[in-house]
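Re-running the complex after MR caught last week's input typo. The corrected sequence lines follow. Everything else is unchanged.
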Amino acid sequence: MKLKGMDLVSIRDLTVPQMNRIMDLAREMVPIAKGKKKSKLLDGRILATLFYEPSTRTKLSFESAMMRLGGRVIGFSDPKSSSVAKGETLADTIRMADSYSDLIVLRYRHEGAARLAADFSEVPVINAGDGAGQHPTQTLLDLFTMREEMGSIKGKHIALLGDLKYGRTVHSLAEALTMFGAELSFISPEGLEMPAETIENVKKMGAEPYITTSVEDVIGDVDILYVTRIQKERFADLAEYKKVAGSFQVNIELLDKAKKSMRVMHPLPRVSEISPEVDSTPHALYFKQAFNGVPVRMALMALIMGAIE
Ligand code: NCD
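Corrected-run output:
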Protein backbone atom coordinates (compact mmCIF):
# COMPACT_ATOMS: atom_id res chain seq x y z
CA MET A 1 0.00 0.00 0.00
CA LYS A 2 2.82 2.41 0.89
CA LEU A 3 3.86 4.87 -1.83
CA LYS A 4 6.92 6.28 -0.03
CA GLY A 5 9.97 6.38 -2.28
CA MET A 6 8.29 4.85 -5.33
CA ASP A 7 8.75 5.91 -8.96
CA LEU A 8 5.59 6.55 -10.98
CA VAL A 9 6.36 5.70 -14.60
CA SER A 10 3.26 3.82 -15.77
CA ILE A 11 -0.23 3.78 -14.29
CA ARG A 12 0.29 0.03 -13.86
CA ASP A 13 2.85 0.86 -11.15
CA LEU A 14 -0.16 1.60 -8.91
CA THR A 15 -2.83 -0.70 -7.46
CA VAL A 16 -6.49 0.28 -7.14
CA PRO A 17 -6.17 0.73 -3.32
CA GLN A 18 -3.16 3.02 -3.89
CA MET A 19 -5.09 5.08 -6.46
CA ASN A 20 -8.01 5.33 -4.06
CA ARG A 21 -5.66 6.45 -1.28
CA ILE A 22 -4.29 9.23 -3.52
CA MET A 23 -7.81 10.34 -4.46
CA ASP A 24 -9.07 10.33 -0.86
CA LEU A 25 -6.12 12.46 0.19
CA ALA A 26 -6.58 14.74 -2.84
CA ARG A 27 -10.07 15.58 -1.62
CA GLU A 28 -8.59 16.74 1.70
CA MET A 29 -6.07 18.85 -0.20
CA VAL A 30 -8.67 20.90 -2.11
CA PRO A 31 -8.89 23.81 0.41
CA ILE A 32 -5.05 24.05 0.41
CA ALA A 33 -4.98 23.90 -3.40
CA LYS A 34 -7.44 26.81 -3.45
CA GLY A 35 -5.25 28.81 -1.05
CA LYS A 36 -7.95 28.82 1.66
CA LYS A 37 -5.90 26.78 4.11
CA LYS A 38 -2.14 26.92 4.77
CA SER A 39 0.17 23.92 4.93
CA LYS A 40 3.85 23.28 5.69
CA LEU A 41 3.66 19.57 4.93
CA LEU A 42 6.56 19.61 2.45
CA ASP A 43 8.55 22.39 4.14
CA GLY A 44 12.24 22.13 3.23
CA ARG A 45 11.67 19.72 0.32
CA ILE A 46 12.82 20.46 -3.22
CA LEU A 47 11.06 19.35 -6.39
CA ALA A 48 12.93 19.33 -9.73
CA THR A 49 10.72 19.78 -12.82
CA LEU A 50 12.56 18.84 -16.01
CA PHE A 51 10.38 19.56 -19.05
CA TYR A 52 11.85 18.73 -22.45
CA GLU A 53 8.45 19.22 -24.12
CA PRO A 54 5.93 22.06 -23.85
CA SER A 55 3.57 22.11 -20.88
CA THR A 56 1.19 24.51 -19.17
CA ARG A 57 -1.04 22.56 -16.79
CA THR A 58 1.23 19.68 -15.80
CA LYS A 59 4.25 21.82 -14.97
CA LEU A 60 2.38 24.69 -13.33
CA SER A 61 0.11 22.43 -11.29
CA PHE A 62 3.06 20.36 -10.00
CA GLU A 63 4.84 23.58 -9.03
CA SER A 64 1.74 25.13 -7.47
CA ALA A 65 1.10 21.88 -5.55
CA MET A 66 4.67 21.83 -4.18
CA MET A 67 4.60 25.48 -3.16
CA ARG A 68 1.14 25.29 -1.57
CA LEU A 69 2.57 22.53 0.65
CA GLY A 70 5.51 24.73 1.67
CA GLY A 71 8.14 23.14 -0.61
CA ARG A 72 10.32 24.70 -3.30
CA VAL A 73 10.87 24.10 -6.97
CA ILE A 74 13.88 24.08 -9.31
CA GLY A 75 14.03 23.03 -12.95
CA PHE A 76 13.67 24.08 -16.56
CA SER A 77 10.97 24.20 -19.19
CA ASP A 78 13.28 24.99 -22.06
CA PRO A 79 16.08 22.41 -22.32
CA LYS A 80 17.96 24.87 -24.57
CA SER A 81 18.61 26.97 -21.48
CA SER A 82 20.28 24.01 -19.72
CA SER A 83 23.40 21.95 -20.49
CA VAL A 84 21.21 19.78 -22.71
CA ALA A 85 22.07 22.39 -25.36
CA LYS A 86 25.76 21.46 -24.88
CA GLY A 87 24.99 17.82 -25.58
CA GLU A 88 24.54 16.51 -22.05
CA THR A 89 22.72 13.17 -21.98
CA LEU A 90 19.41 12.61 -20.19
CA ALA A 91 21.17 10.21 -17.83
CA ASP A 92 23.71 12.85 -16.72
CA THR A 93 21.06 15.55 -16.35
CA ILE A 94 19.04 13.16 -14.18
CA ARG A 95 22.12 12.40 -12.02
CA MET A 96 22.44 16.13 -11.34
CA ALA A 97 18.75 16.70 -10.58
CA ASP A 98 18.97 13.66 -8.29
CA SER A 99 21.71 15.29 -6.25
CA TYR A 100 19.93 18.67 -6.05
CA SER A 101 16.35 17.61 -5.21
CA ASP A 102 14.07 15.21 -3.34
CA LEU A 103 11.76 14.35 -6.24
CA ILE A 104 12.04 14.60 -10.04
CA VAL A 105 9.17 15.24 -12.44
CA LEU A 106 10.19 14.55 -16.04
CA ARG A 107 8.53 15.14 -19.40
CA TYR A 108 10.45 13.86 -22.40
CA ARG A 109 9.79 13.29 -26.07
CA HIS A 110 10.67 9.59 -26.18
CA GLU A 111 8.73 6.66 -24.79
CA GLY A 112 10.67 4.90 -22.05
CA ALA A 113 12.59 8.03 -20.95
CA ALA A 114 11.00 8.10 -17.50
CA ARG A 115 11.91 4.45 -16.90
CA LEU A 116 15.51 5.21 -17.83
CA ALA A 117 15.52 8.26 -15.55
CA ALA A 118 14.15 6.18 -12.69
CA ASP A 119 17.03 3.74 -13.16
CA PHE A 120 19.60 6.53 -12.89
CA SER A 121 18.01 8.39 -9.99
CA GLU A 122 18.06 7.63 -6.28
CA VAL A 123 15.22 10.06 -5.59
CA PRO A 124 11.77 9.13 -6.94
CA VAL A 125 10.91 9.99 -10.54
CA ILE A 126 7.39 10.85 -11.71
CA ASN A 127 6.62 10.52 -15.43
CA ALA A 128 4.89 13.70 -16.64
CA GLY A 129 4.58 12.31 -20.18
CA ASP A 130 7.03 10.24 -22.23
CA GLY A 131 6.41 10.74 -25.93
CA ALA A 132 3.35 8.76 -27.00
CA GLY A 133 3.82 6.47 -23.96
CA GLN A 134 2.10 7.21 -20.66
CA HIS A 135 0.97 10.15 -18.53
CA PRO A 136 0.03 8.59 -15.18
CA THR A 137 -0.55 11.76 -13.14
CA GLN A 138 -3.00 13.02 -15.75
CA THR A 139 -4.82 9.72 -15.29
CA LEU A 140 -4.98 10.19 -11.52
CA LEU A 141 -6.57 13.60 -11.91
CA ASP A 142 -8.92 12.26 -14.59
CA LEU A 143 -10.04 9.44 -12.28
CA PHE A 144 -10.43 11.87 -9.39
CA THR A 145 -12.57 14.18 -11.55
CA MET A 146 -14.78 11.29 -12.65
CA ARG A 147 -15.16 9.94 -9.13
CA GLU A 148 -16.06 13.34 -7.71
CA GLU A 149 -18.58 13.90 -10.52
CA MET A 150 -20.26 10.49 -10.67
CA GLY A 151 -19.61 8.98 -7.22
CA SER A 152 -18.01 5.90 -8.73
CA ILE A 153 -16.46 4.68 -11.98
CA LYS A 154 -17.50 1.01 -11.95
CA GLY A 155 -20.01 0.20 -14.67
CA LYS A 156 -19.98 3.72 -16.13
CA HIS A 157 -19.62 4.10 -19.89
CA ILE A 158 -16.53 6.13 -20.70
CA ALA A 159 -15.79 6.90 -24.35
CA LEU A 160 -12.29 8.00 -25.37
CA LEU A 161 -12.47 10.11 -28.53
CA GLY A 162 -9.67 11.45 -30.71
CA ASP A 163 -6.04 10.61 -31.28
CA LEU A 164 -5.84 7.33 -29.41
CA LYS A 165 -2.65 6.33 -31.22
CA TYR A 166 -0.30 9.12 -30.14
CA GLY A 167 -2.24 10.49 -27.16
CA ARG A 168 -0.41 9.31 -24.05
CA THR A 169 -3.17 10.40 -21.65
CA VAL A 170 -5.60 7.85 -23.11
CA HIS A 171 -3.06 5.03 -22.91
CA SER A 172 -2.75 5.38 -19.13
CA LEU A 173 -6.44 6.17 -18.72
CA ALA A 174 -7.75 3.15 -20.64
CA GLU A 175 -5.73 0.85 -18.39
CA ALA A 176 -6.79 2.58 -15.17
CA LEU A 177 -10.48 2.67 -16.14
CA THR A 178 -10.30 -1.05 -16.78
CA MET A 179 -8.89 -1.58 -13.28
CA PHE A 180 -11.90 0.36 -11.94
CA GLY A 181 -14.41 -1.68 -13.96
CA ALA A 182 -15.64 0.97 -16.41
CA GLU A 183 -17.25 0.14 -19.74
CA LEU A 184 -15.08 1.50 -22.54
CA SER A 185 -15.55 2.80 -26.08
CA PHE A 186 -12.60 3.83 -28.23
CA ILE A 187 -13.50 6.30 -30.98
CA SER A 188 -10.85 7.56 -33.38
CA PRO A 189 -10.40 8.65 -36.97
CA GLU A 190 -8.99 5.93 -39.18
CA GLY A 191 -5.25 5.52 -38.65
CA LEU A 192 -5.32 6.93 -35.10
CA GLU A 193 -6.70 3.85 -33.35
CA MET A 194 -5.69 2.77 -29.87
CA PRO A 195 -2.38 0.83 -30.11
CA ALA A 196 -2.70 -2.95 -30.20
CA GLU A 197 -0.60 -3.21 -27.04
CA THR A 198 -3.05 -1.10 -24.99
CA ILE A 199 -6.05 -2.99 -26.39
CA GLU A 200 -4.36 -6.25 -25.45
CA ASN A 201 -3.55 -4.97 -21.95
CA VAL A 202 -7.13 -3.90 -21.22
CA LYS A 203 -8.55 -7.12 -22.66
CA LYS A 204 -6.21 -9.15 -20.47
CA MET A 205 -7.57 -7.21 -17.49
CA GLY A 206 -11.13 -8.09 -18.50
CA ALA A 207 -12.35 -5.10 -20.57
CA GLU A 208 -14.21 -5.52 -23.85
CA PRO A 209 -13.84 -2.11 -25.50
CA TYR A 210 -16.24 -1.12 -28.27
CA ILE A 211 -14.14 0.22 -31.14
CA THR A 212 -15.57 2.62 -33.74
CA THR A 213 -14.75 5.60 -35.94
CA SER A 214 -18.06 7.35 -35.25
CA VAL A 215 -18.98 9.16 -32.04
CA GLU A 216 -22.64 9.10 -33.18
CA ASP A 217 -22.59 5.33 -32.57
CA VAL A 218 -22.35 5.72 -28.80
CA ILE A 219 -23.11 9.34 -27.87
CA GLY A 220 -26.61 8.58 -26.52
CA ASP A 221 -25.27 6.08 -24.01
CA VAL A 222 -22.03 7.54 -22.65
CA ASP A 223 -21.52 8.97 -19.16
CA ILE A 224 -18.17 10.64 -19.90
CA LEU A 225 -16.88 11.67 -23.31
CA TYR A 226 -13.10 12.06 -22.93
CA VAL A 227 -11.84 14.05 -25.89
CA THR A 228 -8.20 14.36 -26.99
CA ARG A 229 -6.27 16.56 -29.38
CA ILE A 230 -4.69 15.16 -32.53
CA GLN A 231 -1.02 15.09 -31.53
CA LYS A 232 0.36 17.03 -34.49
CA GLU A 233 3.93 17.03 -33.14
CA ARG A 234 4.13 13.21 -33.28
CA PHE A 235 3.34 12.84 -36.99
CA ALA A 236 6.39 12.02 -39.09
CA ASP A 237 4.65 13.47 -42.15
CA LEU A 238 2.61 16.71 -42.00
CA ALA A 239 0.51 15.57 -44.97
CA GLU A 240 -0.72 12.65 -42.83
CA TYR A 241 -1.71 15.09 -40.08
CA LYS A 242 -3.62 17.26 -42.54
CA LYS A 243 -5.70 14.25 -43.62
CA VAL A 244 -7.15 13.86 -40.11
CA ALA A 245 -6.98 17.43 -38.73
CA GLY A 246 -10.47 18.73 -37.93
CA SER A 247 -12.05 15.33 -38.64
CA PHE A 248 -14.23 15.42 -35.51
CA GLN A 249 -15.69 18.08 -33.24
CA VAL A 250 -17.76 18.12 -30.10
CA ASN A 251 -20.37 20.85 -30.51
CA ILE A 252 -23.91 21.71 -29.38
CA GLU A 253 -25.43 19.65 -32.16
CA LEU A 254 -23.65 16.52 -30.91
CA LEU A 255 -24.47 17.28 -27.27
CA ASP A 256 -28.18 17.40 -28.13
CA LYS A 257 -27.94 13.64 -28.70
CA ALA A 258 -26.27 12.95 -25.33
CA LYS A 259 -27.72 12.25 -21.90
CA LYS A 260 -28.29 15.39 -19.80
CA SER A 261 -25.86 14.07 -17.20
CA MET A 262 -23.13 13.32 -19.79
CA ARG A 263 -19.88 15.19 -19.09
CA VAL A 264 -17.13 16.17 -21.51
CA MET A 265 -13.54 15.91 -20.33
CA HIS A 266 -10.28 16.83 -22.09
CA PRO A 267 -6.70 16.86 -20.74
CA LEU A 268 -6.19 20.16 -22.64
CA PRO A 269 -4.84 21.94 -24.62
CA ARG A 270 -7.70 21.76 -27.10
CA VAL A 271 -7.41 23.00 -30.65
CA SER A 272 -10.69 22.62 -32.55
CA GLU A 273 -12.00 19.32 -31.19
CA ILE A 274 -14.30 21.00 -28.66
CA SER A 275 -16.19 24.03 -29.89
CA PRO A 276 -15.96 26.99 -27.43
CA GLU A 277 -19.78 27.09 -27.29
CA VAL A 278 -19.61 23.87 -25.22
CA ASP A 279 -17.73 25.72 -22.43
CA SER A 280 -20.85 27.36 -21.00
CA THR A 281 -22.98 24.19 -21.01
CA PRO A 282 -23.36 21.94 -17.94
CA HIS A 283 -21.60 19.23 -19.98
CA ALA A 284 -18.19 20.95 -19.79
CA LEU A 285 -16.02 19.44 -17.06
CA TYR A 286 -12.56 20.16 -18.49
CA PHE A 287 -11.70 23.33 -16.58
CA LYS A 288 -12.60 21.75 -13.25
CA GLN A 289 -10.57 18.73 -14.38
CA ALA A 290 -7.53 20.98 -14.96
CA PHE A 291 -7.85 22.50 -11.47
CA ASN A 292 -7.94 19.00 -9.98
CA GLY A 293 -4.35 18.57 -11.12
CA VAL A 294 -3.23 20.58 -8.09
CA PRO A 295 -4.85 18.63 -5.20
CA VAL A 296 -4.11 15.29 -6.88
CA ARG A 297 -0.43 16.13 -7.36
CA MET A 298 -0.24 17.43 -3.78
CA ALA A 299 -1.56 14.12 -2.49
CA LEU A 300 0.76 12.12 -4.72
CA MET A 301 3.89 14.07 -3.73
CA ALA A 302 3.02 14.01 0.00
CA LEU A 303 2.67 10.21 -0.15
CA ILE A 304 5.76 9.58 -2.31
CA MET A 305 7.87 11.86 -0.10
CA GLY A 306 6.59 10.04 2.98
CA ALA A 307 5.16 13.18 4.60
CA ILE A 308 1.91 11.24 5.01
CA GLU A 309 1.58 7.45 5.19
C1 NCD B 1 -1.53 16.35 -22.56
C2 NCD B 1 -0.13 15.81 -22.80
O1 NCD B 1 0.86 16.56 -22.66
O2 NCD B 1 -0.05 14.62 -23.05
N1 NCD B 1 -1.54 17.59 -21.91
C3 NCD B 1 -1.57 17.60 -20.53
O3 NCD B 1 -0.65 17.15 -19.90
N2 NCD B 1 -2.66 18.09 -19.93
C4 NCD B 1 -2.40 16.31 -23.77
C5 NCD B 1 -1.97 16.96 -25.05
O4 NCD B 1 -0.90 17.54 -25.16
O5 NCD B 1 -2.77 16.90 -25.99
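None of the earlier attempt is carried over here. The CA atoms of residues 41 and 69 lie 5 Å apart. DSSP finds eleven helices and nine strands in the chain.
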